[in-house]
Amino acid sequence: MLRKLMLAMVLVGLPLAEPASGALDLGKALDDDGGTTSRTVAPGEKQRIVAFGDSITRGYQATPYSVYLQQLIDSNGCNAVVINAGKGGENTINGAKRISGVLSEHQPHYVLIMEGANDIKIGLSAQAVVANLASMASQSAAAGAIPIVSAITPNTQSGSERREIPEVYNPGIAAMAANNGIKYVDTYNAVAGPNWDSNNIDGIHLSNQGARLVAQQYFAAIPCGGGRGGGGSSDGGGGGGCFIATAAFGSPLDPYVSVLKQFRDTYLLSSEIGVRLVDLYYTYSPPLADFIAEHAFLKGVVRVVLLPVIGCAYVLLNGLGYTVLFGLALFALVVTVGYRYKRGLRAS
Amino acid sequence: MITWNRCVFCGIALLSLVMLERGSAVSAEGTALVIEIDAVWTEFDGIRHEIFHASRQAGKWSDPEMVTDDYFDNQLPVIDRDSQGRAWLAWTAYDRQMTEIRFTSGSIGDWQNSAPVAAAMATNTAPSLVVDERDAVWLVWSANSGGLDDIYYAVYRDAAWTEPALVHGENDRADVLPTITLSASGSPVVRWQALVDDGYVDLVSEYVEGSWRDEQIVEVAGEVGAGDDDEEVVLPEFIKNIDTLFLRIYR
After folding, report:
1. Helix, strand, coil: what percent of chain A each, to 5?
2. What is the pTM of this model?
3. A58, A66 in Cβ contact below 8 A?
């Protein structure tokens, strides 16, 4: 009961994605807002977002993340279309060859690149995978699109995890992205950990729940979701950025915001209802977060409202729940005993 | 030549990597052992992945045996046999962000302890090997020390490996996924893929008179992992991890 109450209270204060910063220096110049010059969107034109990858992108026996991303975009009122260009079984060698045709066909504004899972099976080193992903990003930028690269998601198909993914491959991809000013989304940590079993269907392909989490990561990285698409890594641990609290506290790195994000990742995203609530939050809160960010008085009010929520979240996260409850019970007992003692004294 | 072989198992079509070999392995007495196929693959033993082997003789598969039992996460095994029928295995072994090539030799029930192919590079992967007519074991793989991959080779003869050396010249591109076979004249031939101008090309080089010839572009590289269909092989039920299966078919 207490946990459900905490969940409801914390949901109000879920924080916001910090707009990404950094240069995209793959031949593109920065504009004044820190975004990048790329293919322009004509008035009334739908922004085109290509989801490029292997069968994890294509979707296998589950809804692909591109569908959930489209839902988030539509719910947020953005005029953009997500095009699924995933191909089953593809490795980064073939992806680096195929992407030029996809870019010509769709002329996207953004390219969401997620490949590498099949490369590990055939013995391609992390360095080669990184080189191929860099090639895809470079080709995307040359075609006027902003690339966003992803980590490789876990592989437990053979019964145990391929530890090279988080230990070697993903750090290499993240470093390449950082060195080139490319946005990097940590889809690995979004779906890995204790919830991996429910986020996949066969040890490698995402379930609907896993796909939803990946969609949230990408959503936070594109302008519709508050990101700018260029440079830096998407903050936000398991489920992407956080809206309202970041608007109130001013930074996604604020310690209070981090507590709320941890609570979201640990408690909300571990249950189906929690995931649905987070979906709703991401759908409806961005405009509210923008409004709060523009009004200093509101920031202060939201901070005051959130502080007890943050406190409760902190207590739950750090296992202090029982300690606090015991302390409260002890306090209540002392007060009760003291009150009765006083009454007894008065009576006598 | 590497081909993808279409395998039929319980009515389900599967794919496996097959190396076509020049002839049957023979015993020390000179009589044919009639080893038709060697299969090596990896399985998770509860802690990490180990290398397993089985061979088919006269249409019957031997029982699977675990070749490795160590603290590495072992993947991508390859196998060939020498003229005495002795099998040579190589694979990648991962441990704490480093990957090395390890090898062993032996026969069913009698495998040597595995050992590393000493190399200075931090990442060594995708081994391929072939035994030549003088029973020298030629091993190629891709490796790097943080930069782009290159193709290395080493030869096992006189009970020792030669120092790893580059197959090609120094370059600033990624050279990956080598495979080694023997030409009609018996000299080693390496084929690999190289990333050139955002695209991969197939390169080939032959070892002639003590050195590797200048690499030649074969053709614009096709799909990595695709190939021609060949004979059908019915896999035994105990091979479960098709992703890591390597078959050597002897003819």
Report:
1. 60, 10, 30
2. 0.72
3. no
